[in-house]
Amino acid sequence: xxxFTKWMVRHRGIVVILCLLLLIPSILxxxxxxxxxxxxxxxxxxxxxxKGQKILLEDFGKxxxxxxxxxxxxxxxxxxxxxxxxxxxxxxxxxxxxxxxxGMLPVEIIPEEIREKxxxxxxxxxxxxxxxxSSSEETMEAIEQVRKTAGEKCFVSGLSAVVTDTKKMVEDxxxxxxxxxxxxxxxxxxxxxDSFLLPIIFLACIGxxxxxxxxxxxxxxxxxxxxxxxxxxxxxGVTLDYxxxxxxxxxEQKEKTGDKDEAMVEAIHLTFMSILGSSLxxxxxxxxxxFMSFTLGRDLGxxxxxxxVMGVLGTVVLLPCVIRLLDGAxxxxxxxxxxxxxxxxxxxxxxxxxxxxxxxxxxxxxAFYGYAHVNVYYDMSRVMPQExxxxxxxxxxxxxxxxxxxxxxxxxxxxxxxxxxNMTEEMQQVDGVRSVIGxxxxxxxxxxxxxxxKDVLGMVKSDRYQLMLINSAYVISSDExxxxxxxxxxxxxxxxEGGMLIGEASCTKDLIACTDHDFxxxxxxxxxxxxxxxxxxxxxxxxxxxxxxxIELAIAANLCLPYYFGQQLPFVGPIxxxxxxxxxxxxxxxxxxxxYKRNRLSGMDRKEAVQNAVSSAAQSILVSGLGFFAATxxxxxxxxxxxxxxxxxxxxxxxxxxxxxxxxxxxxxxxxLDKLIxxxxxxxxxxx
Length: 688
Known about the structure:
Elements: H1 2-10, H2 12-21, H3 23-32, E1 34-36, H4 48-60, E2 65-71, H5 75-86, E3 91-96, H6 97-101, H7 112-118, E4 119-120, E5 123-130, H8 137-150, E6 154-156, H9 159-192, H10 198-216, E7 222-224, H11 225-256, H12 260-289, H13 296-325, H14 327-332, H15 344-351, H16 353-372, E8 375-377, H17 389-401, E9 405-412, H18 417-428, E10 433-437, H19 439-444, H20 454-460, E11 465-472, H21 479-495, E12 500-502, H22 504-538, H23 542-564, E13 568-570, H24 573-601, H25 606-638, H26 642-672, H27 674-680
Helix pairs in contact: 1-2, 1-12, 2-13, 3-10, 5-8, 8-9, 9-10, 9-11, 9-25, 10-11, 10-13, 11-12, 11-13, 11-25, 12-13, 12-22, 12-24, 15-25, 15-26, 16-23, 16-26, 18-21, 22-23, 22-24, 23-24, 23-26, 24-25, 24-26, 25-26
């Protein structure tokens, strides 16, 4: 390795050029990587709801659908609009009163219970089906065309409309996210580092490694919009301290030798060995997310694991060469760090460690209770900005037709039509069901079959299944709609054992079950993986337990606050934050403990060892924690997408809480349990 690093430092200009040339395929890869905006896409493929969506696409050519509410249109105008919508690319079919009757029946002769399914006052209802999935580029383009074609009198509701608006909002803000993170990190580095040029160098090199990572996503084919939005910010936050480690090591080596190249070679070697252990815990946290059955975790976990690896490569390959090239400029822009002396923290902690230990014990119950009872939400459309077209349309649908969501029903085509009518009548009696719409419900209302055109029949009947729509007054992810789905499924299975109830509400119900399971699995895997890493690094039985427990307390303190303040978190928040915060900040505890062990082995007593460890590690921990906070907090404040905003604010707060716990509470634990640690740590038994 040293031979390679010597060559690299000597030929630093060539190395920098090669690293910059890699940006070309990276940028091309970024442009070619598709983005998914529908979170339900990441549900396990073996669920009936997911299988039903595939059947809908295979048998009926229908992937996504939207309900349209038109205002102030006559029947001929409605028919003309529906006909125009059918001509839009990727619109498979349009089902509404005008489409079903082709304008041949006056509204007045239609029975009221049928008419109310399509008409309320001067508003009419239509369903538009698309031949691609909810988050496909084709469907989102078709939604935009539907809005233009239908005009201002039409409100386009449903998941596909929400996804379309989410895409526009995220794409408008992505570059700003990175700009905010970079600007705030630069401020932190200006305060804490000893050169005004260093922050620019650090952030530029990290930016290159971020582009390498995002470009390599091309091999994944596609990533979620959440991953795309936060990957750069998270990578900046979790890998920033690697650059700081290298600089401090280089500065120390320069004092030992007059040869700057030799000093940098030694600094690279020492930094690589130091950040290898640090990066392993961070990667372990991200890898554990990959075990979620809800595969958004795998999406984010793979991208961020790559990001940490790319960050390490950028630190030990690109950054040393840039520092050596600009060494003179760095020295000319040097200044005293503006961060005040933090050595007093060590004296404070050792003086008041018993009080701090009591505080730690008192925190445990309320922190973990709130952590276990935090409220989460699953319906992303409910927290979108209220001025979005899709949000306005969903409200219009709910207020006018008393419909909050729509279920799709796939019934075997061989089920006798009388059974279908009986099933429809039973379903209409279920609490919250506003209407059940299908060809057979219309035929049962006395409309002759001959008046239903064959092309219309083909929209809702295939060789295997017939399609029905159930309109519900209950909102997605509510207890009421979940109970309604169970009741409807019970009725369906009575008439058709192979029938399927699908749609956004059913998928969300499955999502709730998946994430409840995932939370337990992912937490256990991340704790176990990081426990093993610390066990191997520290050669101790007790220290892995203590360090993981301390960071878990910081995680609980972070996630309990929304419970006590009456706030709701997006459903992925607790799962992702618990693993990200553990993997990214347990390094602070490892650094503190390593210094404590080294001091004890050098002959210091427990108080002196802990005080010195806190004093010597405090600045590094503060700089790292403040950098992580800066990279995420500004994005959390700015973002209008609640799932991104909530995650970034949680990560930022978690970084500060981990810093506080490690600097104030962990030292108290080390002092109180010094004898236990000595007896259970292999290289400390000589102190017994």
